[in-house]
Amino acid sequence: MIVGNSVSHSNIKTKRRFYPNLQTKRFFVEEEGKWITLKVSAAGLRNINKKGLYACIQEAREKGFLDK
To answer: Is residue 17 within 8 Å of residue 3, measured between CB atoms?
Structure first.
């Protein structure tokens, strides 16, 4: 989350928050033969498409984000 300002036409600034674009997606992991549900950002989906699902899962497990 990032904090910033909403700026009106008359240049009045009020605080607002910028949230990540999170999506809940189900993926089938062929190497493990099971479905997993992940809450990923739009940028995370692009990484999965680029690197492959299993590589991203291994990377997340090494960092401690996913259960083994």
So the answer is: yes
Distance, CA of 31 to CA of 1 (rounded, Å): 33
The secondary structure of residue 66, as a DSSP letter, is S
68 pLDDT exceeds 70? no
Is pLDDT of 1 > 90?
no
- Cα gap 42→15, rounded to integer Å: 25
**Nearest of 61, 56, 62, 27 to residue 43 by alpha carbon:** 56
- Work out the pLDDT band at 66, boundaries 50, 70, 90: confident
Task: Give pTM, 2 decimals.
Answer: 0.66
Structural domain boundaries in the chain: 21-68
